[in-house]
Specification:
Layout (H helix, E strand, L loop, with lengths): L22 H10 L5 H9 L6 E5 L7 H5 L4 E6 L2 H10 L6 E5 L12 E7 L9 H10 E12 L6 H8 L5 H10 L3 E11 L2 H11 L2 H14 L7 E13 L25
Parallel strand pairs: 1-2, 1-4, 2-3, 4-5
Antiparallel strand pairs: 5-7, 6-7
Helix pairs in contact: 1-8, 6-9, 8-9
Amino acid sequence: MRKSARRGRKADVLPSPNIWYYPKAYEVENRAQDVGGEIWRVLGEEAPWAGRDVLDIGCGDGFHLPRFAETARSVLGVEPHAPLVRRAAERVAEAPNASVAAGSAQRLPVPDASVDVVHARTAYFFGPGCGPGLAEADRVLRPGGRLAIVDLDVSSEPYGRWMREDLPDYDPPEVEKFFAAQGFCCRRVRTEWRFDDTRAMAEVLRIEFSPRVAELAIAEVLRMNPATSAGVTMPVGYRVHVRARPASIVLGRHSASSSEASSISPRMA
């Protein structure tokens, strides 16, 4: 989750290569993901949100906000890309306890110690370089509040292998070491993605990978799915990193150099 800087300055926020440019295809992807609800089950165990105040960093077009709003006291989605902010606001327009604001992970438009759960899913927190966002999450969390980071497991098969093909310099063990050193526990979650048909599956894979890797992935998924009317499925692994905010912490906005704000998305080929 990054915001483009003015010319002559290093960018704080890099454009998302999928949802910024292909929001309709990304909606198909969101609906296909985790059809068994495994990620939600793990989040409910590690960072329960019922009756609590939730902040979703990098909420995109707000796909996950209604799920939180069902039982949370309040939900705020924060997103840097103006068109997505508008789409997210439209999605939660009928939810009285949900709202959306423009902002970045490094500069959250939220008071100190004002939320109980900070959630980020495949946004900004990709490993070394996300320190400013971690500091901001600690600032806005109440003592004992939880920061939950959901990201794709680049060590899993087959989706992780396709990602590694596009990102040969990405080091999954190094990312794991980074989060462990920051005090996070990690739970690996195996999920199933399900598409209505092969066309939808191919459309999604083509916004996630380079053309060469996308075609290899499409062919592999087709081999996994003999002709059937039940749709197209594929396994996808995730990591859920969670840590609690310490009871004692010095609050205040974190002022980072541009070199600190260099977290690179493992989805950006």
